[in-house]
Amino acid sequence: MLTTRLWMGSVLIGLVVGMLVFDERHSLFAFQFAFQLLLAVVACRELLALLGNGRTPIAALCYVGVVALTVFNWVFHGVKNYQPGLDWGDNWETIHRFWAYVALLLAFMQLAIFVWEMAIFRDAGGSFERMARTWMVIGYLGLLPCCFAQVRWLYPSDKALGATALALAIFVPKGCDIGAYFTGRLIGKHRMTPVLSPKKTWEGAVGGLAFAGLAAIGIDRFAPAAVLERNVGIEIAFGVSVGVVGMLGDLAESLIKRDCQTKDASQMVPGFGGVLDVVDAVIFAAPVAYVWFMVLGQ
């Protein structure tokens, strides 16, 4: 199991680094778009399978919502990049405009969910729960990853800053996960969440947060551009805060799996389980990392 995790983890790291390097040549970050869209669709499929037939949301609208939110991250900036005559204002105004359009898109999705249920309604019972589950899937796999995608465009005049920020958003929460795993295996004794995830320990959590802080320092110091200003206080605060939320993301997916009485989301990624099992921490940590970069970059 450990050997499989090591070689598969190396492959995943290579894929992410490759995406960051190759996307430097593309103004719209085509590799990240393809990567994120594929992961979104596969993760949506896994989550729908986890929920099972007894409590399946509106599958078609789940896919439409997740894909629409993912694609909109690139459509918005594509229009911005190829319509230089339009007055987009400063970077803050661009950020506000993007999220205003996202809110509008979510509003139309809510309308679509209601209309769908009205069209298929036959008997009482199940409609509200189905709509709520549909909204949860769209929010979890469509809305939260928008923060991850938007990290790329927070630094319009410097692609290196965007790539470094994205590396921090990925490798700090995953570094916390790795540090917690190995620390827990070596010295873990006190269970942190005996019901949700019995193998997690407080010792592992402390080791994970320490590793997250070191990952933030290492990336910020050795990357081509310094997003966290090479300030050790900011680097540690970023690492710990993003690491904590990443751990919560891991536990959030454990909650779903426990409730669905399933160990892994799937067996697609050897040694890790499914795509959801790989990206859970990053999805949850993305909004916190995004706020850090947004504040530091302005």
Write structural notes for this entry:
The termini are far apart. The chain is built from nine helices and two strands. The protein has a two-stranded antiparallel ribbon with strand order 1-2. The chain is mostly helical. The longest helix is centred in the middle third of the chain and has 30 residues, at 91-120. It has one domain (2-297). The mean pLDDT is 88.
Proportion of residues in β-strands = under 5%
Mean pLDDT: 88
Helical amount? over 70%
Spans of at least 5 consecutive residues whose pLDDT stays below 50 are none
Question: What's the layout of helices and strands?
Answer:
Elements lengths: L1 H21 L7 H22 L7 H24 L8 H30 L6 H24 L8 H29 L3 E3 L3 E5 H21 L9 H28 L15 H23 L1
Antiparallel strand pairs: 1-2
